[in-house]
Every structure is written in C-alpha cells, then in structure tokens.
Amino acid sequence: QSENSDKSSAESDSETEPEQASVYHKLLATLKTSPESESEDDDDDDESESEEAGESGTEMDSEEHQENGEAEVGEEDENDMPDKKGICLLLYMATAEQTLGEEQCDGEDVSCDPSHAVTEEFTDVKHESEFSLETNFMEEESGDCDVDEKRSNPFKQHMDKEMEEKEVEKMSTLSKSSSQIKWPRLGQLTFSSTLEKQETLKPDKEVDVKQLHLHKPLEVTWPKVNKQLLSSLNKSCDSCFTPLQRELFCIMNTYRDLFYPETTALTNGEEIRLAYCLHALNHVLKANAQVLSNNAKRRDRKPGVDTDEYRDQGLTRPKVLMVVPFRECALRIVHNLISLLEVKSDKKIDVSNKKRFKGEFGSDPEEKPPNLKRPEDYEAVFAGNIDDHFRIGVAILQKSMRLYAPFYSSDIIIASPLGMRTVIGAEGEKKRDFDFLSSIEILIIDQADIYLMQNWEHVLHLMKHMNLLPLDSHGVDFSRVRMLNLNNWSKYYRQTLLFSALQNPQINSIFNKHCFNYTGQVAVRNIPQIGSISHVVVQLPHVFRRLEAESLTSVIDARFQFFIDKVLPEYRDAIMSHTLVYVPSYFDYVRLRNYFKKEELNFVHICEYTKKAGICRARRFFLKGEKQFLLLTERFHFYKRYTIKGIKNLIFYELPTYPHFYSEICNMMKATDSGVDATWTCTVLYSKYDAQKLAAVVGIDRTAQMLQSKKNVHLFITGEN
C-alpha cells in the first residue's frame, strides 16, 4: 500500500473487500464524507437509546447519506457498505460532470435547491460585459491611476521581477538554504530559499495601514471590518491588526510562501481568514487596476508605439484560488470580501447573484438538533453548511462583485478539494478542464488538516495541475501576457499560503515539494513542550511500545506484524475484555477487521460508513461485554465524537492525527459506570517515523528520550498532570 493511501477517503467496507485499493475504491474515493445530520439524541447517559435504535434500524437522513454512499442494511457485515444510489451518484459525478462554461440563456437566478448544483452548474453570463477586464477602464476616483508609479509596493516588486534562465535552473536543481528566527507571536520561524541574498524578515512592532501599500479603499475598510470581527470574538486590539494578524500579514505582504500549522476554527480561525482575505483582495484589486489603467493608455497611445510595457496579465484571468473544506467557509470568505469592499456603510456595493449564493451556501439553524452534546472544537469546525462538494467563481471590478462568474471570467475561485477534483477530472476523460489554474498567483489552502479526514488524494491531484500551460488560448491577448507566463515560469511566482491545525508529514510535503516561489518560504515550526497526555483526567498507565521498521514505506506492514505477533496475543484472553482498538488509517482498519474475522475473534467494528443501527448494536454489545474487541476508525471519531462506554483496555494502533484525540479517547474510560478500575490499560504503538505525532502527545522532552531508547516506555497519569 502506498504512503498516501493511509489518508484516502474511506471506501466500501464489505466482508470481501480486498485490502488493496481497486478501481472501484478509487471511484468511491470521490464521495463526500461530511457527517450526517444527526436526528437521534446521543445522550451518553441514556443507554436505552442504543437498544431501541439498534432493534428498529433507525432511519437515516436520506440526502446526506446517499451522497456519502450510505444506506440502511440489515446485516451487520454489510453495515459499512455504500448503497447503490451512492454508487450511481458517484459514477455520475465521475463521468457526467457539467463543463464550467455551461451557460444559462438569460443568466437569471434559478432555484436554490442544493441538488440543482449536481445536475446543472449555474454560471452567471448576464453580467459578462460589465465585469470584462478587456472592455472597461479605470475610474479616476478609484485612486489607482498612478499604480505604475508605485514601484516600491510589494505587488509591483514581486510581479515585475524578471527572472533569468540561470535563476530558474538554480531553483530547479539546487537545494534550499534556511535560517531560523524567533518572532514574538508566531514563535520559531524557518526561512528558506534557493536564490542567494535573501534577507531574514523582521516583524513590525507597529503597523501603519498607509505603509502597507494597500489598495486605497482597503485602507479605509480594513480597520473598521477587523474591529467589528474582534469585538464579535471578544478580542481587543489597540491597532488595526491583532499581534497574530500583524505578523502573518507582514509575511504575506512580502509574497513569500507561508505555512502556519496552528490554525484552529475555535480560537484564531476567523482572524486568520480575514487577514488572508485582505491580502488576496488587495492583490486582485491592484492587478485589475493595473489592467484597467493600461487599457486607457493603450486606447490613447499613438499608432506604432511599442506595447511591450503593457504586459500585465496571465494566460487566464483567475489570480487567486482559495481551497476550503466546507460551504460555510466559502460563505464567510465572500462576506469578508464584501465587507472589505464597502467603503461607506450606508452605500452597499453591487453583488450579483447574492440571494442565490446565500441559498446554496447558507444553512438553516433549525436543521441541527439542539440536544446533541459535542466538544467546542467540533461545533466550531462543523458550524453551518458542511457540504464539501462546491466551487464558485468571483469576479471583482472596482465597486462591484459578481458571484458565480464563469471561471475564465473570475478573479478569485473558492472551492473544496472535491469540487476541484470533479472539474479537473482524470487522464482520459473527455470533459475535464484545468486551464483556469494556469496563472494562479496566490494559492490559499485553509484548514488543510481536515482534508486528511476527507480525501488527501484530491489535494495532491490539484497541486499536480497548478500553473501548467493551458491547452487552449481562451481568447487571451498575447501582447498583454507577462513574459513569466509565456515562459511557463508562473509556478515560481505563485505564493502559497498554507494553514493547518497541526504539523503532519503529508501537509509538510505539499509545502516542501509543490511550492517553488522565488521569494522563498516561511514555515512556523514551534515544538510542543507539553503534550496532550497532560489532559488525560483518569488514572491510567500508558505503555508506549516501539516497533522497528527499515523505512517509511515498510512501517505499515511492520506495524501490522508487530500488532498480531506481540500485542494481540496479550489481549486474546477473556479476562482482557472491553478492549477498544483505535485505528487512524481506514486501510489498516480493513486489514485488521479481515484478520479478526479470519481468526474468529469476538469483536465488533465501527467506521465512518457504519449505519446508525450498526453503530448502536456495536456500542451496546461492547458495553455489555458480549463482544471482547471494538475496532474504531479515527475518521468516525472525527465526524461523530460519540462517547464509547465500557472501555477497560485501550490500544492505539497508531498515534492519532489530532493530538487532542488521544486525551479524548482516554477520558472516555471515565464514562464507565463502575468508576476507576485498577486494571485499566492503555497501549500505544509507535516508530521512529512518528516523531511529530509523538511530540504532540507526550511533549518534546519525552519524545527525545523515547526515540533514543529502544525499550518500551511506561507512563502513569494520575489525573493531575
């Protein structure tokens, strides 16, 4: 199995399913995996709920589960298998995706039914000429007619640099040199670059908006909009930036790539989102102002004058791509953009198709049952509309915004990885398109950790299609195209902003292998001093068992062999009942489930595709001790956060992706009615390749000791650590 397969979207879980991913699995991998709209009360104190739902085969929410490929199946072995409707929908998505340029005859707003997006993708053609860059000119009152004179601003410095072939060669062949510095708020930063003479950036203690070279309207709107956000979040700030925003924007505004792995929806997600919206909008407004200004100069120029000085565009119009996990995130981004464009509060900007957008990307508060108990971080991540199959083009021209613009008439594209995957398509498909990615100048990937729980392959597929030469000209005026685009060097000018809640090898790989910015990269590399194990509140001995593997690719097989040879035999005895095995990788889960069936062990299993009835039966059997083992996938815990009662023995087959899941799972033991049990156990499997995950759980000091020693490590948590 490949390294990437560990984080792929969950596939069919039938009894005869092979452990290797087949073509069938690859098709199913495009199914969305957002959690179902819960209809049952998951009150952990009410055990009778499990029995009733288990016996009656609780009816699921049809729309959500059909998209997930889920359906009600009576037999336990088939509980995890996608239904026929889900497969048909998937096959339709894979083979009959509508083209991006599909037009409606009159461009009028149509039904806001979410299912409409599946059968016919709406794009606004009514306002095409109004938002055309080619046929419009700069309005004098916009204050950007002098854009060419502002040679000191970061936008001009970055986009106007003319690279030489030897520099491009150097970037393609030489390794990056790096340096480290500590900033007051961001902490430890690593600056890296291939080109020489890269100065280490220092943070600004105070920021004057006028010194940031913002597009003039943004100088007025930013302080107002940001203060409104901070007051709603109960955060105070004397200046127009929070300390975090100031340091992040200081890096963004230099056009360096940025990786910030400490973004959480619960704490700083909104202030970070607003900061990158400011940067993206500033870039788009400046780029469009330059084009409109040059339009007027070309119109007034004398015949025969050289037009090379008017090279101000890419091969296609889209400049910014924002990748976000859910429709709610796209909704908040658009609201931020609108707020930043409205200079006067009493005068709203013109936004085309706003009503339709709210209907398709908004949510009904009454849809969510009020009696569900979930952690605060869960509520923050899954707030609003959590559909993960969408894409929308946004065109901005001076004082107007156009939602649902065709991609080739858009400045900003907001999409989910799945939304991008279904339009990019695969090799050999007739209807596929990725030319609109050819001239992306800013790529923003927000909440990257969530894509590990969706389908990481979609992110990799997107990165492979970034900044390629387009297959069609799409009506571009080549006399206006920058030389960097004609030379196919656009990837060296693209800025990538990557935000995540955690550091992970796969996310790191995106930043290290798919970012080529000539300006360099900045990564925040803070090492956790105290791990999540300190949040375990039950008295519990933790045994960390080290397994040896010759290489990263052999870890998967080495872990499985270590588990069945060294760990599982200790738990086969009936006295070791109530054993929960927590499995982060779906493919490891399938492998273990097949092995348990082959060995005829007394067990139940729950994954992200298990039906409600199957979940209730499994939880009931496990609680009563009728089943000795419970196999549980990490993605099920991520999307559901059910409390599993009856755990007496806990095995982490691999360290959790999210460090706080470790303490959450351990603390489930206190849900058992019998209280603290002296025989409780917790066993964790790890290898030397799990250093990042290990540090996040036990802290950096313990990690260093554990990686140096080849012995098992025993830790006892008293509940006060």
TrEMBL record:
One Gene Ontology molecular-function label: U3 snoRNA binding
Domain UTP25 NTP hydrolase-like: 255-522
Ranges of compositional bias, category Basic and acidic residues: 1-10
Region called Disordered, residue ranges: 1-82
The keyword Nucleus belongs to this UniProt entry's keyword annotation: yes
Source taxon at top rank: Eukaryota
Pfam families: Utp25_C, UTP25_NTPase-like
One example of a Gene Ontology biological process annotation: maturation of SSU-rRNA from tricistronic rRNA transcript (SSU-rRNA, 5.8S rRNA, LSU-rRNA)
Domain UTP25 C-terminal residues, every copy: 532-716
Keyword terms of this UniProt record: Developmental protein, Nucleus, Phosphoprotein
Localization terms from the record: Nucleus, Nucleolus
Chief location category: nucleus
Keyword Disulfide bond annotated: no
GO cellular component: small-subunit processome
Bias type Acidic residues, positions: 37-62, 69-80
Family statement: Belongs to the UTP25 family.
Quaternary structure annotation from Swiss-Prot or TrEMBL: Interacts with CAPN3; the interaction is required for CAPN3 translocation to the nucleolus.
Protein function: Component of the ribosomal small subunit processome for the biogenesis of ribosomes, functions in pre-ribosomal RNA (pre-rRNA) processing. Essential for embryonic development in part through the regulation of p53 pathway. Controls the expansion growth of digestive organs and liver. Also involved in the sympathetic neuronal development. Mediates, with CAPN3, the proteasome-independent degradation of p53/TP53.
Protein name in the entry: U3 small nucleolar RNA-associated protein 25 homolog
